Amino acid sequence: MVRVGGGAAAQRSAQQGAWLGLLCLALSPLAAPVALAAERPNIVLLVADDLGWADASYRGSDIDTPALDRLAKEGTDLRRFYTTPICSPTRAALMTGRDPVRLGVAYSVILPWHNHGIHPDEHFMPQSFSAAGYQTAMVGKWHLGHAQQTFHPNERGFDHFYGHLHTEVGYFPPFANQGGVDFQLNGVTIDDKGYETYLLATEAQRWIRQRDKKKPFFLYMPFIAPHSPLQAPEELLAKYRDLPDKRGRSRSPSDRTNQFGRLRGAPSKRPVYAAVVEAMDRAIGQVLDTLDAEGIAENTIVLFLSDNGGEVVRATSGGDNSPLRGGKGGTYEGGIRVMAMLRWPGQVAPGSRWDSMMTVMDVFPTLASAAGVPMGNERSLDGRDLWSEIRDGEAVAHEGLFVVGSETPIYGSLALAAIGERWKLVQHVSQELTSITIATELFDLYKDPSEYNNLAEREPKRVERMAAAIKRWRSLYPITGTRIHLMPPPGWRAPHDWASYPQRLESLQDTPAPGMPPPEAVRLLDYLHGERGRLIYDCEPWLLEGGVCRP
87 an active-site residue? Predict the structure, then answer.
């Protein structure tokens, strides 16, 4: 999601926010850092997994979601909030404020047999909050690396981690992935029993109640719900058992799969999906009630978002993104424009709606600005600080373009998009052994947010410019970045226990591996790779003399 034409402004905004925080500290010699920290707002960051755009009752859904409805009523509804099409890239952007294409996590999620993770040199959001005196905790799904301890949540700014390194661990014990148990507390396997969503809520409540009340806190709570495979408590399954599936066509490749499912008589997943969503909403309600009971709701920023749009494959999920087109894994609006709300009583107008464009990369700089927390990033950000505009309800124009992509679920089949304030280019790239085909669609999102009318033939120059932005974005990708490998390497075996899987710090060298090429050849080889991708980390070759990256 490189912001073409807006990178300098984003970096300037981040730098201004950091300097402002440092200036406040410098001008307050009589106030100790701990005292300053105590006056800052708490942060609760809630992330759903594959929730549909239309799957809250305040948006007309037949699923009961009183907690989500409450957030919308008491805060502002972020109506044009964008993520990536899939899990890991969104989480990487959320934690760093940077484009996942730079991080090598853009085309695919991190799978159990991958050794990918986010570079240890990248600065994570909780690290900035921790440095500013915050207590930090994560309760839920990580999905940002599991092969080395350097990728672990406890190494990325979280004092406390309760949850799972992977996705798809199920909603009931034994909470396993590929047959290996994946449930831990700060690196130690735990055996808590119950429904996963409710366990997360109980732990979040316990941690909030037992916190150091002299210090503010940062709580990150990424749910597994409502990701497939879907499971729910019997009470909620019974409640929604006869729920009709009223979803229409998504106008995406999933429709063909859904047609085959109907012909085979496969039952709709909408009823069990509804049960999973309501269970998540109840968990969110428990957290909100705990903030009330502790008397801290007024000084707590609560931000809710989904990591991508709802999955719309009838046989595996039940998400509803209507009236948006498409769903998870695709780059139509239904895959990347998600439900998001922000609440801060007394700071954000209740029941308001903010229609300006915001991306998941903007969350870190925006929350840091709202809390007066200096950002510790050394690398330039791709996200923007939008706090003052959200607080004041002011519209803000989106600068340049940002680009998203996904290679899920078919290897060599990419869904791509370049999105601007008004115009959006969607590309479908299919790589065969001896050919590549590219289908292009252009949409005017002001007039056609549901993407019915392809204007590509009418606007060839615009298509050419936006396609060039996608091409340039793709050339940033590390050549060993994530790709969609649905099956493990031949013979690969999973551990019995994922808590024991990460290579411990003491067994690892102090610096990243140099790679196979001799050091003096790396710059040249990176240059020779051209548009295929990068050997040198975080490299933009066309910005430097001769098109060569600095090592």
Answer: yes
